[in-house]
TrEMBL record:
GO terms for molecular function: ligase activity; zinc ion binding. Residues 101-144 form the TRAF-type domain. This is RNF41 ligase. SUPFAM superfamilies: RING/U-box (SSF57850), TRAF domain-like (SSF49599). Gene3D superfamilies: Zinc/RING finger domain, C3HC4 (zinc finger). Keywords: Coiled coil, Ligase, Metal-binding, Zinc, Zinc-finger. One of its GO terms (biological process) is regulation of canonical NF-kappaB signal transduction. InterPro entries: Znf_RING, Znf_RING/FYVE/PHD, Znf_RING_CS, Znf_TRAF. It comes from Chionis minor. The keyword Zinc-finger applies.
Length: 244
């Protein structure tokens, strides 16, 4: 939907009106046939129709383009009243800057920021409302440090609130201790598995070293036996030599 034409000051060119809602163009798009529409209006129209609502030429969403620059400039220069005029705002500004003004307008109706409060209040009166809002929160005047709503003043019991807070803290502490315990047990199990795996690897390496040592000792014994045999052969050869 476009901007209500009744809000504008002075004459508005026919070419700046939406061909569907007949209000002043808002976020405009233009068809190849040069008819202009509000984005929301033309998208809604094309859900059920495939042609221009003015001349019935076939159009598609992909063919829509932004408004010509000169038309966009003419549109932005139009002067209009703030939407909060009925609440007392007398601001008149260009269409280009109206959104920025209305976001900050002191006469805008905004919700109370206190949780649970459904009051809509003018921005300029918000501070005054917050000071007396029954849903406003404050710290307990008795010094327990608990934050209470004004509507709960009569029901507030410092001892009960502190007891409840203590129970919550105790429960939270127990949960954290259990989490820390489970985490430590998990780490210990992981380290234990790692150590068992490491021990197994070391044991295999020791067995391999023993096997190598056994082979070496066997080789040494074989060499010593061969040496004795060689020495005996030499002695026998020496005896034979002497006899000759």
């Amino acid at each position: 939907m476009g901007y209500d034409i009744e809000r504008f000051v002075g004459y508005v060119n026919e070419g700046l009106l939406c061909s569907i809602c007949r209000d002043v163009l808002e976020d405009p798009l233009q068809a190849p046939c040069e008819h202009a529409f509000c984005t929301a209006c033309i998208h809604g129209w094309l859900v059920h129709h495939g042609n221009c609502p003015e001349d019935r030429q076939m159009i598609d969403v992909s063919l829509l383009r932004p408004l010509y620059r000169y038309m966009k400039n003419d549109l932005n220069r139009l002067q209009l009243h703030c939407k909060n005029r009925e609440y007392g705002c007398e601001m008149v500004c260009s269409l280009e800057s109206i959104d920025r003004h209305e976001r900050e307008c002191e006469y805008s109706q905004i919700p109370c920021s206190n949780a649970g409060c459904t009051v809509q209040i003018e921005r300029r009166n918000l501070d005054g409302h917050l000071a007396v809002c029954e849903y406003r929160s404050r710290e307990c005047p008795n010094g327990c440090g608990y934050t209470i709503l004004s509507a709960e003043d009569t029901q507030h019991n410092c001892v009960a609130e502190l007891r409840t807070e203590l129970e919550l803290l105790r429960s939270e502490m127990i949960c954290r201790v259990e989490e820390a315990k489970h985490e430590m047990e998990s780490r210990l199990d992981s380290q234990r598995r790692h150590m068992v795996q490491k021990e197994s690897i070391l044991q295999n390496e020791i067995e391999e070293l023993k096997s190598q040592m056994s082979r070496m000792m066997s080789d040494v014994r074989s060499l010593m036996a061969a040496e004795r045999q060689h020495r005996q052969e030499l002695e026998q050869a020496e005896l034979e030599k002497r006899e000759l």
